Amino acid sequence: MPISIKLGIAGRLFTAALACLTLAATVPTGRLFIQSTSPEVPLYVYTPIPESGLEPRNIHLSFGDNETSVVVTWSTRNDTQSQVQLMSVQPPNATEKLYNGSSTIFVDSGTKKATQYVHRVTLPDLGWGGLFKYRCGSQATGWSDWFEFRTPKRGFSPRLAMFGDMGMVNAQSLPRLMQDASAGMYDAILHVGDFAYDMQEQDGATGDQFMQMIQPIAARLPYMTCVGNHEFMYNFSHYKNRFTMPKGFGGDGESMFYSFDLGPAHIIGISTEFYFFVEYGVDQLKSQYDWLQADLERASKNRAARPWIIIMGHRPMYCSNDDGDDCTFGALFMREGFLARWYPLEPLLQKYGVDLALWAHEHTYERMWPVTRLEVRNGSWAEPYSEPAALCTSSLGRLVVESVTTPSGRRCTILRSAAPTMATPGCRSSTPPTSAWSRSATISRVES
Ligand SMILES: [Fe+2]
């Protein structure tokens, strides 16, 4: 079955969000209001953290080991059971189904040793194209509010919101994300590192507040993540304990490196921070590198089913900010390996033809032509790239995926954003791209 992907990097959302949203303030009730100056974007009201110690908080979803499986993760201050009540809305089914999971205890390493219990319940194989509502908690200690989520339709083309570096205090993009998520614009979120600035502050209360702040989005859409440098404290323990990334293709089991299939794409999340926080051990750098090589090998043999290989990590391998820091020295570590020698990423990405790399960290929006070894591999509709290592960096972007058939009737997969067009040879048509296409930077891959 042909599968196609069109993926646009959304300067539009980024620009609109930063231009229109200006005010974040804490009011005496403890509620956080994020106000938009745009009449199109409503006020966002932060829901306070429940104080009972028993009530679920920080509720969020992630993909399980396949696209129709969902993991519900939440925390409680006290030790409670881990249960989810699930009801199918579409197709309708009045019968509630009860799922059981488990919890792990997480103790912050600050002076208070603040303790919470992180609950995880897997909802496996829910089927394609369903609309569900759920609540989490337990029959013994009480339930959360009801939340709704959808499973993708068979053969779907994913629509993803991608960003990094949000922060607890000045999350200016959140109202727009909320609005877009409510409108059903996305199938999932990709948050590419740096979450609360910083989660461990206030003995972990900042992390709790951040997770509560994103709950209206994350409780209804899979919130897929990478670790960033701002999660470095206590060996990234807040990140490792708060999120639940898939384990179906292996990885470290702590959400630091993992991968999952989504529609026509194989998406890989890695820790770029292993290259910089080596005091936590060089062995994890080797573990990630060995796993990544095996994962890319497997994914490259599965192009017929998943034509796109996309990697995401926090610090960019290429960027252009003139800060004398991560776009020069740091990027060298990423491309050529730790101390310009060990476990270089770029040869791996080039060898296996990784199509798109998503980075964050720089607090700028930037996208690049396909580039390897500091050279741009030209890509245009007339002269497509032949060494596909398309790299893109962004602090906030939107990825939109659609199906494409060329005027000649050839099915192919497409990446698109707002700049000139690129394509692979097999996807070239005898006729030039349409005016709509020519407004976009597009990279395409032929379907088998
Ligand atoms: Fe960062």
From TrEMBL:
Classification via CDD domains: MPP_PAPs
Keyword Signal: yes
The EC number(s) this enzyme carries: 3.1.3.2
Keyword entries, A-Z: Glycoprotein, Hydrolase, Signal
Biased composition (Polar residues): 427-448
Sequence ranges assigned to domain Calcineurin-like phosphoesterase in this UniProt record: 159-365
Superkingdom, taxonomy of origin: Eukaryota
Catalysed reaction equations from the record: a phosphate monoester + H2O = an alcohol + phosphate
InterPro entries noted in UniProt: Calcineurin-like_PHP (IPR004843), Metallo-depent_PP-like (IPR029052), MPP_PAP (IPR041792), PAPs_N (IPR015914), Purple_acid_Pase-like_N (IPR008963)
Ranges where the record places region Disordered: 423-448
Sequence ranges assigned to domain Purple acid phosphatase N-terminal in this UniProt record: 56-151
Gene3D superfamilies: 3.60.21.10, Purple acid phosphatase-like, N-terminal
Enzyme class, UniProt record, top EC level: hydrolase
Pfam families per record: Metallophos, Pur_ac_phosph_N
Molecular functions per Gene Ontology: acid phosphatase activity; metal ion binding
Family label: Belongs to the metallophosphoesterase superfamily. Purple acid phosphatase family.
Name of the protein in question: Purple acid phosphatase
Organism this protein belongs to: Macrostomum lignano
Phylogenetic placement of the source organism: Eukaryota, Metazoa, Spiralia, Lophotrochozoa, Platyhelminthes
